[in-house]
């Protein structure tokens, strides 16, 4: 079975450092796949390669059966690959609603082209639904720069979902969140529609094991192990890698 996303032989070098060395990764439609590993393992670099912001020196990335290696991040987003970053990236002076509207607009196709403001109305409606889902309805009119870190995280996920992605790339969504916020985030991710596949980079292994169907472990730019959460949890190799150096 071919995957929705297939990365093969991906190699990224920075000078003499191989951030990624011949890494393969496959994510199927609707799958929750986690990418874990110690600091500096190459997780963010692999998300950058899949999202199109880093070009690998070697290797291929295909999405939905097509090679997307030559496409930049915006073109990949149009095809359905959306991401959130290790540090939340929102427009601070725009309200929560406006942030989602801006994210949704490029992917909104008006039902009737002559309807003035139609696309904006649809984007606003989508924003309202997403704010409700994320528990952000109360702060819809608050500028994103005034939101708490956890709320900005939820907002960024809502922005990524506004583009109706088929693959959501999440880089450490739980970083810096309080216990309550982590609980809320976990619930949001658990209830995402299966129309969206998720590639989750996360240091919180409790979240990883609770949310994912499959897990890949990177270390020093190479795949150390891949399997189900149970297989990874009990793998001596993985325990050793984490004992050796995780934040
Ligand atoms: N632009 C860059 N220039 C030079 N080296 C880089 C660059 N980006 C990443 N690296 C290096 O590549 C390696 C992999 O980095 P990456 O950010 O992918 O790791 P990570 O697994 O995401 O780590 P963390 O868990 O700390 O976020 C690290 O050694 C890092 O220092
Ligand atoms: Mg990282």
Automatic annotation (TrEMBL):
InterPro entries: AAA+_ATPase, ABC_AA/LPS_Transport, ABC_transporter-like_ATP-bd, P-loop_NTPase. Keywords: ATP-binding, Nucleotide-binding, Transport. Pfam families: ABC_tran. One of its GO terms (cellular component) is plasma membrane. One of its GO terms (biological process) is L-isoleucine import across plasma membrane. The keyword Nucleotide-binding applies. It comes from the Bacteria. One of its GO terms (molecular function) is ATP binding. PANTHER family: AMINO ACID ABC TRANSPORTER ATP-BINDING PROTEIN, CONSERVED COMPONENT OF ABC TRANSPORTER FOR NATURAL AMINO ACIDS-RELATED. This is Amino acid/amide ABC transporter ATP-binding protein 1 (HAAT family).
